[in-house]
Amino acid sequence: MAQVAIKSTAVTNYNATPRVQNPVGIDGGRLTRAVNGLCTITSGDTQAATLADGASTYRFGKIRSSDYVDTLQIVTTADAGTTTVVDVGLYDLLTATNGGAVVDQDFFCSSLSLKDGALTRGAASAALSADQTFEAGAAGGLITNAEKTVWECLGLTSDPNKEYDVAMTLTGACDGTATALLQVYVVR
Description:
Blueprint: H1 9-15, E1 31-41, E2 57-64, E3 68-76, E4 85-92, E5 102-113, H2 150-153, E6 163-172, E7 178-187
Antiparallel strand pairs: 1-7, 2-6, 3-7, 4-5, 4-6
C-alpha cells in the first residue's frame, strides 16, 4: 500500500502558481432551487421508448445550460402501479422552433421505477430514495461530471446560452396514479 495526498480541482487551483480562479460551480457559487414542480402521472398515460414513439412527458421546470447541477430529488405521493418506469432528462423548451424536442431523454435518470413504493426523503432503500442526482451513470448522471456545467455534460463544444425543460418521459406503462414532485438544485 502507498500513502497518497490527492487534491481536488479546487485545492489544485488554490495551490497553483499563479493561482487559478475556480469556476463558480466549484467554489463560491450560490445554490438555487431552479425547479420545484408537481405533475400527476395517471393510469392510462401512454408509454413508449421515446417521445418520438409516443411516450408521455411531464415537464417540471427549466434549468440553464450554464448551471452546475447540485442535486435532483424526486418525491412521489404513492406507488404508481406495477409497471410505471420513467426517464428524467432534458428537452428544448416548448416555445423553441423545434417544438420542445428531446435533448437527452435520460440525462438525469434512466429507467427510474415509480412502481416499487413511494419515493421519499430519508428512505431506507436506495431504490426508494428521493435523491437521484447520480442515478443515470451517463451524461448528467456521472459523478465525474459534478464539476461540469450542463452544456459540458451534454458534450457540447461551447455554451449555447439557453434553457432546457427538465422532464420525465414515461417508458414503462402507468397503471397507477401518483403525484411527483421534482426539485433540481443548481449552482449559479
